[in-house]
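CORE FACILITY INTAKE
Project code: CF-77B
Contact: R.S. (postdoc)
Sample description: multi-component assembly, two entities in total
Requested service: structural model of the whole complex
Turnaround: standard
Below are the sequence entries exactly as provided by the requester. Do not edit them.
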Amino acid sequence: MSKRTIEILVGLFVLLGLAALLFVALKAANLTSFSSGDTYQVKARFDNIGGLKPRAPVRSAGVVVGRVTAIGLDPKTFQGVVTLDIDRSFLFPKDSSAKILTAGLLGDQYVGLEPGGDEKNLAAGDVIKQTQSAVVLENLIGQFLFSKAADAGAEAGAGGKK
Amino acid sequence: MDRIAALGARILAVLRGWGHASLFFLDLLRALPQALRRFDLTVVQMHAIGNRSLVIILASGLAVGFVLALQMYYALVKYGAAESLGLVVNLSLVRELGPVVTALLFAGRAGTSLTAEIGLMKAGEQIAALELMAIDPRARVLAPRFLAGVLSMPLLAILFSAIGILGAWVVAVGLIGIDAGNFWSIQQSGVDAWRDVGNGVAKSFVFGILCTAVALYQGYETEATPEGVAYATTRTVVTSSLAVLGMDFILTALMFSTP
């Protein structure tokens, strides 16, 4: 085989490899979707973040508008501090509220943003004041049992008086 | 007393082997600039190492993609998570199977031929002839092959992963009937380009250095007899496979230990 043919074939091989890298990075990974381009950061404090993880989506009306970038614990109030990176093209009123929700029954958790009615918008570094924590299944069951027990107690009390 | 002396001799021999191999590796690295200066030699080697491995890499990648998708589907469908089939296949290919299986195939396909080629060069006293002509065989023979192997491995590994994902797409979307939009979008939200794909490429780069250096070392240090070359070829496959598997554990622990 002549040197020219070999060089062409090697060039083809390298191009094929780079095309595969591009394919994996763009089509099968998140390089295109929401990189850290034009975003602003706000924080939200939650009593309980449940199973929220960094890189979880931030959605408003179900549409992804940003991502969770960091999760920490405030050492004084013992609240979870969640840092949200939100796309600059979406401005939310200052009194918007954040909830931790679950996609589907067993799906991943995400942050839901609900816009408020304030005329001023959230700016970089702001803290979202109104938050709703993640639903923890054990707490929910505990509450349910507690209310059942209370009902049963009330019934037993009423039955005794009869 | 004799036994203690024999044990000592064994330990010294092992240490000497390690030292010898490390010095050889340093020599290889030192000869790399010369390989860059004569890049045409490297290109010819890339054809022998990279292009000629393409068929086996692509065929294995496609088969692994098919089988992974079929197998994972049976497990995932029980939990109603069949949609994330693509994500499971993608992550296992990009993080682990792509780099590791490519390195194992590479050791068998390209590593052995490197060892046999250089071993036979040595047996035919071509290496000695080069030295006689004041040409450094490390710069002229070994360094271009080393560079070609190190450059080819990441390319082959990412091709393996890409064709595997395509194979999984054929099975998932074509055979099983998973929605194509979901197939890709779940991957895009679950696979990180830098953390997963980038680390996978970094892994295969390390494996490229390992496999090629082992193959060249075994060839260069072979006994100059037909049995010696045969033995060196076997050792290339065994040593590089074990080295890849061991190194993979260390690299995975370093790269992916934090969630």
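Facility notes:
- Chain A is about 30% helix and 30% strand.
- The first strand of chain A starts at residue 39 and ends at 46.
Invoice: internal transfer
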